[in-house]
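Memo to structure team: turn this sequence into structure tokens by end of day. - J.P.
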Amino acid sequence: MDASLLPDGTYAVRVVKVIDARHVLVVLNNGVKTKLAAGHATVDFSAVHVGDDLKLSTLKGAVLIYLDLSKRESKI
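Reply from structure team:
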């Protein structure tokens, strides 16, 4: 699924692949996979691992903030 089609909001997702520090491939609760990009310079996915559960907020398909539920760390 194209991330730009994802309605703005907060989602619980599972990490499928960390592409780089600015992009991550996730699967939503409904089974849909999408590639998400960091929406701010301070959002960094380098500490995220495959299988981690994240709660994140998106705007226009970009991640504004996330909380790694596996580690209890938030990244703004």
